[in-house]
Amino acid sequence: MAESAEVIVVGMGPGGEDAAGKLAEAGLDVLGIEANLVGGECPYWGCVPSKMMIRAANLLAEARRIPGMAGASTVTPDWAPVAKRIREEATDFWNDKIAVDRFTGKGGRFLRGRARVVGRRSVEVDGVEYEATRALVIATGTEPAIPAIDGLAGTPYWTNHDAIEAETLPRSVAVLGGGAVGLELAQVFARFGVEVTVIEAADRLLPMEEPEASAVAAAALTREASQFTSVRARRASHTSRHADSPSHSAKPAR
Ligand SMILES: Cc1cc2nc3c(=O)[nH]c(=O)nc-3n(C[C@H](O)[C@H](O)[C@H](O)COP(=O)(O)OP(=O)(O)OC[C@H]3O[C@@H](n4cnc5c(N)ncnc54)[C@H](O)[C@@H]3O)c2cc1C
After folding, report:
1. Is the shortest distance between the CB of 131 and ligand 1 below 6 Å?
2. Of 89, 137, 151, 249, which is most buried with the most CB atoms under 10 A?
């Protein structure tokens, strides 16, 4: 017989965690199921660590502006303290104990595992079926989209997970996609001395935003990275010539 809960929430990223927590606080019997880390992309591979990276990169950019304005400065970028802060302060070494406790503290039940929907209101996790008597909430978010580019599969490319987890930086990177996430990572790496090339298929950077925003971003980035718009990457190849080339897994982490 299937185990049951009033509400089952599949995916405990910012969306699922919030919904599950509020429903549990309201007194419902809620089962939250998460395949990876409670909190999802944002605190571990997205918003929070990337803003820590941006803060550090902005410090470098600001320090480089001292000459001619406020004296002299010598700037020597070092990625090590950024990687350390991401590990120790932002992500707790990619450990979600605090987030799990926060949810169970609200009265929710937590199950770690990958759920598969097997009925109108039921899911299966590791061979066990769970049925929701009132509602099944699907909050599984998104995964990195790996474009169908010839040769990419055999290349040790980075997704956002690899970029955020990096302990050392490569000598150069090509960033596929000039949207908000691509540009913020591009600018961070450029400010830390990485040779960055941004490739965007649309005719402007930030194609989802107003054209004025694209113009501002393009002008700002000109000083820091090469950028190509209206260009679609067709082939990718890789040599292991550089000892500092990306060492992380080429696979999306989930
Ligand atoms: C580098 C970067 C920077 C970003 N910066 C910002 C920012 O500054 N501000 C901002 O607002 N947003 C930012 N975002 C976007 C933000 O991270 C996402 O919008 C947010 O995480 C989406 O939340 P979600 O709950 O919908 O999905 P997710 O965070 O993707 O969570 C979904 C969860 O579902 C789980 N899951 C999936 N399938 C299953 C299954 N079958 N069974 C169980 N669990 C499953 C996953 O493991 C995951 O934990 C950034 C993203 C990136 C990559």
Report:
1. no
2. 137
Beta-carbon count within 10 A of 29 CB: 17
Q: List the beta bridge partners of residue 137.
A: 9
Q: How is residue 93 annotated by DSSP?
A: T
**Which residue type is seen at 223?**
R
Does 13 contact ligand 1 (Cβ within 6 A)? yes
Is any ligand 1 atom within 6 A of the Cβ of residue 10? yes
pTM, two decimal places: 0.91
Average pLDDT, consecutive stretches of 10 residues, N- to C-terminus, the chain (254 residues):
94 98 98 98 98 98 97 98 98 98 98 98 98 98 92 93 97 95 97 98 97 97 95 88 44 32
Contact 188, 165 (CB under 8 A): no
Task: Please tell me the residue having the least CA distance from ligand 1 atom 10.
Answer: 47
The residue whose CA is least distant from atom 19 of ligand 1 is 42
Between CA 47 and CA 64 the distance in angstroms is: 26
Angle at which helix 47-64 crosses helix 180-191, to 10 degrees, equals 40
